[in-house]
Design a protein that fits this description.
This protein has 173 residues and is an alpha+beta fold. The chain has one domain. It contains 1 helix and 8 strands, in the order αββββββββ. The chain has one helix at residues 22-82; strands spanning 90-96, 105-112, 115-122, 128-132, 138-139, 142-145, 148-157, 161-168. A 4-stranded mixed β-sheet has the order 1-7-8-5, covered by helices on one side. Strand 3 (115-122) and strand 4 form a beta hairpin. It is rod-shaped.
Length: 173
């Protein structure tokens, strides 16, 4: 009986496994599979993040337009109410959300190219909408931060100068 060493001292391989390469193939296949799976998952995660960011931007833009339309229709309604008969003053109170999809915003009533507009802009500048208003009265440039209760006021100043302003409603608290 010839004695065979437990391991070949030069190669370090057990004699019964000298021609066997399956372990190397399995380890290589496993490593490649894990690497490919990781790359695919990272691609899916970054793609989903991009889609969610785009969806949030669209939601912010849409909601700022809705708020702008709500205020502009209020401005036009107050203009009509203030110009009826001998009525010179009119006030409309509306309640607006304090944020647009989690983002603070500003409301402005001002002229753009000599036309009155309601402008809603997020504080980070990600969305802005300018809605023109067709009114007979003049406007007093106004800027509000956020929503809450606001008043749209039509008043006659100096006997014949009709002016519309927007401001935060003071609840007297």
């Amino acid at each position: 009986m010839t004695w065979k060493p437990f391991r070949n001292l030069i190669t370090g391989i057990t004699p019964r496994l000298e021609g066997d390469t399956r372990a190397a193939s399995f380890n290589l296949s496993y490593t490649i599979t894990v690497a490919i799976t990781t790359i695919l998952l990272l691609g899916v995660i970054s793609g989903v993040g991009t889609v969610l960011d785009a969806q949030q931007d669209r939601a912010v833009s849409h909601q700022s337009e809705v708020i702008g339309e709500q205020i502009s229709s209020g401005v036009m309604a107050v203009d009509r109410m203030g110009g009826v008969g001998d009525r010179t003053n009119a006030t409309l109170t509306t309640d607006l959300p304090s944020e647009v999809v989690g983002t603070p915003y500003h409301i402005e009533l001002r002229e753009v190219n000599e036309e009155p507009h309601v402008i809603v802009e997020t504080s980070n500048g990600s969305a802005s909408s300018a809605i023109p208003v067709e009114i007979a009265a003049d406007i007093e440039q106004s800027r509000l931060t956020g929503g809450g209760k606001i008043e749209i006021v039509h008043e006659t100043r100096d006997g014949s100068n009709n002016v519309i302003t927007i401001h935060e409603k003071d609840d007297g608290i």
